[in-house]
Design brief:
Layout (H helix, E strand, L loop, with lengths): L10 H7 L5 H12 L3 H11 L32 H17 L1 H52 L1
Helix pairs in contact: 4-5
């Protein structure tokens, strides 16, 4: 937002480049962190830093300027819970909006999981039965050896 070379990027482009899936979640988080919407913040930067005086400022200036105290920038606002909350809200809205398609997907997933579990149990049972039959053959051979040794 500071550099005039990036004025051609829209706020939606900045949101997507920052890793947000929608403009509304970007606006909400940006407003929580700075106290201003992205557009208000951009307009504020244009008033504070005019474009004709871009060469005189420090190149290491932070992206988001905040004159608030440290508790506003605490870790609880910068964690990943907002991202997961947004994903679950989006998933829930899509489930409600596309009920038939969602039901079909959920039923297909359930059938796939149950099929995989049954195949796993069947293969495990087959492998155990081979081990048992080998043990039975060994026992029969031992019994025959004992009979031969007695005679």
């Amino acid at each position: 937002m500071h550099d005039p070379a990036f004025h051609h990027i829209t706020l939606l482009g900045i949101a997507f480049e920052s890793g947000f899936n929608s403009q509304s979640s970007f606006h909400r988080i940006f407003k929580q962190l700075t106290g201003k919407s992205p557009l208000e913040y951009k307009n504020h930067l244009e008033k504070v830093l005019p474009s004709y005086n871009m060469g005189g400022r420090n190149q290491l200036a932070p992206l988001i300027l905040s004159h608030d105290t440290l508790p506003k920038w605490s870790d609880d606002k910068l964690n990943c819970n907002y991202m997961f909350e947004n994903y679950f809200k989006t998933a829930w809205r899509n489930l409600k909006k596309n009920k038939v398609y969602s039901a079909l997907n959920i039923v297909g997933l359930a059938i796939g999981i149950v099929s995989a579990a049954l195949i796993f149990l069947w293969v495990e049972d087959e492998l155990n039965s081979i081990t048992i039959s080998q043990n039975v053959i060994t026992c029969i051979m031992l019994c025959k050896m004992k009979k031969v040794m007695r005679v």
